[in-house]
Amino acid sequence: MMIWLTGLLRRRTGRILGTAAGIAAAVALLATVGSFLSTARASMTARAVAPVQVDWQVHLNAGADPRAVLATTRAEPGVAVALPVGYAKVPALSTQDGTTVSTTGAAVVVGLPPDYRTVFPGQIRDLGGTGNGVLLAQQTAANLRARPGSVVTVTRPGLPAAQVTVDGIVDLPHADTMLALDPAATAPPDNVLLLPATTFTTLFDPLRADRPDLLADQIHVRTDRRLPADPGTAYTVSTGAAHHLDATLAGAGQSTDNLAAALDAARSDAAYATALFLFLASPGAALAGLLTATVVAAAADRRRKEQALLRARGATARQLLSIAAVEATVSGIIGAALGAAAAAALGSLVFGDSGTAAWSAAAAAAGLVIAAGTVLLPAGRSLRTQTVAAGRTGAARPRLPLVLRLGVDGIALVGAFLVLRATTATGYQLVVAPEGAPRIAVDHWAFTGPALLWIGAALLTWRLVEAGLRFGRRPLTTLLRPVAGPLAGTVAATLQRRRRPIATAATLIACAIAFAVSTAAFTATYQQQAEVDARLTNGADVTVTATPGDLTGGLADAIHATPGVRHVETIQHRFAYVGADLQDLYAVRPATITGGAHLADAWFTGGTAETLMHRLEQQPDGILVSAETVTDFQLQPGDQLILRITDPRTGNPTPVTFHFLGVVNEFPTAPTDSFLVANQHYIAGKVGDGPSTHLIDAGGHDPATVAAALRAAIGPGPAITDITASRTVIGSSLTAVDLDGLTRIELGFALLLAVASAGLVLALGLTERRRTFTITTALGARVRHLAGFVAGEALVITVPALVIGAGTGVGLAQVLIVILKGTFDPPPDRMALPWTYLIVLGAAMVAAVAVTVTGVLAQTRKPRLALLRDV
Amino acid sequence: MERGATVFVGTHLSRTFGQVAAVRDVSCRITATDRIAVTGASGSGKSTLLQLIAGIDDPSGGRAAWPALDGHPRRRPGRIGIVFQSPALLPTLDVHENVALSVLLAGQSAGQARRAASEALRLLHLDDLADRLPHELSGGQAQRVAVARAVATNPDLVVADEPTAALDSATAAHLLDVLLSTVDRLGAALVLATHDSTVAGRMDIRWPMADGTIPTAKASS
Predict the structure, then answer these.
(1) Among its keywords, does the record have ATP-binding (chain B) (predicted)?
(2) Confidence of residue B220 (pLDDT cuts 50, 70, 90)
């Protein structure tokens, strides 16, 4: 055994290294993408919880002792800090400016302990004045026309009104959670006043006896956040801890778990990340395995003859299997080690993380399985089915493989079609994550479709190439004449009889191309939609949303004057009732809107963006509505639509008549459900101006830089967002997780596999036929004759592989886009094809083939005459 | 080719592989219709000398010339027919295609190659095997096909490297009959390496080789 192993390592180094290289590719891909998955999940968890300020809000039930609940909460495992917060509901807040009295509707007054802003620094953002003392929320300040120094009167039911002096104006970025007075609250109150705890106690303790219904107590908790990396597990841990606190409080309080709510969304993203891993990495790993098998199979003739010689000299089947096992083990260990090292290097380079030991070990184990499957299994099969004599003579006339004779390709393709049809029926979702439910569901059936499509497409490629060579000798001869000249018939005959290895090689290369094309097209589409999403969310390169009170044109002038601003487009956001349904209404200037905001044709139905904006311009009372509204209200083009829009001058809803013009599905800054788009000028004429959002075209300048310049120019009042930030703020979604890294690795591997399969498979096949070329040279063949053989084979393998592979890749990408539509928001109207990558891929493959052909020809120039003596 | 024309002249030929001298200072001449047996033990340099004569290898020293061929055999493919120790048929071509290949490589058209191959197979009584693949032939049949391939181009010289080594005596005798009758019909010279004295006995001339050289005399017809 040792003699054989030594001989193998010394004389068959290429064979061992070729096998190891294929295994290394599979191991590296699996380990790298696996590590990405781990990193991505941890990143999702971190991103999801980062914006959360108050992890848990404990709502005290009536009659509960606030001190006891606070003590119990602070003693709970995992609680880092717990602070008491008081709430009071008041009928109104008011201010008086000279003779003008401004009064709000119902308001909430909040009492905060002194260290609240230190413990929860992101809860309150200063917009003006000092950050301490009496603070007024931005919108409330606008409603009351209050500023620091203003005196606000707080109405107290049953008690005289109290007066406080405003120290600062603040923004409450997490108002929805901070101001939720009970766990079931859905929307934050409109008017908010924040008081120091002592002032709050002075003002509202007298109400406790008579009107306890107006007061509420909460405990805001910051946990130690020792959470598992996986968002799903972190969700379960956080939920469990919050439930434990509820149980410990024994009815005295009930917690709202803001941490779990944030993780709830991230865990479905984690499920999609896993799905992406399965869809994108597993075909690559399988392909690397197939490449390894092809490398091994290229030496099958020689291996079979070696085996036959050993059998003829008395070697037992057990000994022969042991020899194959040694070869498989050596190749597997070398390949696994190389692959793990490559994955660690790639991980460090791309993700800044060398990966996890668990993933490296799992990938290495997969590498050993590939080694066993590609070396040991064929050896065993050969032992069972081949006689010594047959082993020494060589290949018989090629038969169609059993899988093709059974029509597995057709069955797989029909199966794929049926599964895809079934799984993509209306309402289909790959990942179902019911809000609050402890577990998420991934529809694993969806994986069957692409898997069957891969199998069917690969086998169909094999069948087509096989059939083309079997039955197409005459046309093949004609096609080969330019490269093979008078030898075209002979080359065609050779190719026809070698159709099995040629079809195998073409199939492998087609699969490699399909993998590269599908990965590239999917990721390009994904990135395209992420960009569209960011653009839809932000509306433009930079968006400035004015404070509700700012209805003047001064802000627009200041924006115009800021460096880096090329064009400013102002749209106004209003609310309007369509029947009883309150919808967002966007008042636009149709003639100029496209100067600041990008409008895609796919966002409109019944015309392009340009034609519909033109129609809106021509018809001042025209209106574009969502498809949902068209259905709900049975609208026909030209129908009259009367909306009730609040007039800011009077505060009263005013009926305004419009005419239905067309359908809009998406619009910058608009929500995903129902909304309306109409003429700004027309609406302003009926109900006055509304709050403005300025969409800014940065004209090629860095949006983040322009946003920073705007902040410096117009102060902290208006909210300024840029598209760069939007890209990362699209929640903890996959786009925010460094998908670029995965894309780079996937595309790199795809390119490597495609080039390796084209070059290596071709080179191995041709190298294994060195004796044939030596004989042909000895018979008088010149380089041009051999070039006919070599180039003919290269063309017959690569041309169909390129055509079929590219087609299959596009088809697979389309299927992935359909199945993974949950990762797209909005869904793409067409697939994006990354032409640069595809051109590089094609060029790299052509180069690999050219280098291989040239290399093989260079080898044949100096024939190894010793080969002439081989039997 | 004229009777007595010089087909090959080797002058102080040598061929070394690293430190090993396979052929040392061999001078020889081959004329048309010569029947030469190159004899000697295994490793004596027979195959290397034949490769030099066939022009498929170049000498490390000395000079090889083929006066009757008007140039090097690599530029005049088909003028020297070669029969290797093993049949060395291309496994992916059938018998007819294997034979036709040598004619095509000699620069003939596809039609001429087809006709020449059919003729050669007919001469060697191999017509019935034309469609078979090499692995479907017996050892003797395959070697006869190799002979057919060697003579299909009507060569001036046939070089055969132990063509009967792997055959039983009856098959070997039959193959030799076929080979001799074919070269007789073509009027070609024959140089045959063998360590079988029976085979050598049927040749007109013997070149006994030992340690890469022909010690008895300068080989010449």
Answers:
(1) yes
(2) very low
Q: How far apart are CA A211 and CA A216, in angstroms?
A: 11
Judge: B135–A394 Cβ closer than 8 Å, yes or no: yes
**Minimal Cα–Cα distance from A776 to chain B, Å?**
8
Per-residue model confidence as pLDDT tens digits over A594-653: 766 778 777 888 788 888 898 989 999 999 998 888 888 888 888 888 888 877 666 567
> Across all residues in chain B, what is the average pLDDT?
88
Q: Is the previous residue joined to A51 through a cis bond, with omega within 30 degrees of 0?
A: no
CA distance A867 to chain B (A): 10
Q: How far apart (Å, rounded) are the C-alpha atoms in residues A307 and A324?
A: 10
Grade residue A731 by pLDDT with cuts at 50, 70 and 90.
very low
Per the DSSP assignment, residues forming a β-bridge with A742 are none
CA distance B11 to chain A (A): 22
- How far apart CA A646 and CA A639 sit, in angstroms, is 22
* 8 Å CB contact of B133 and A397: yes
- Give per-residue pLDDT as tens, B172-193: 888 889 889 989 988 899 999 9
- Please state, in angstroms and rounded to a whole number, the distance separating the CA atoms of residues A113 and A21: 64
Cross-chain residue pair B135–A396, CB shorter than 8 Å: yes
Is B86–A493 a contact, with Cβ atoms under 8 angstroms apart? Answer: no
Confidence class for position A740, pLDDT limits 50, 70, 90:
low
φ and ψ at B144, to 5 degrees? -65, -40
Nearest to B75 by CA among B85, B84, B83, B66: B66
Q: Which chain B residue is nearest to residue A493, measuring alpha carbons?
A: B93
Rg (CA), chain A: 35
Cβ distance of B84 and A487 shorter than 8 Å? no
A651–chain B Cβ distance below 8 A for any pair: no
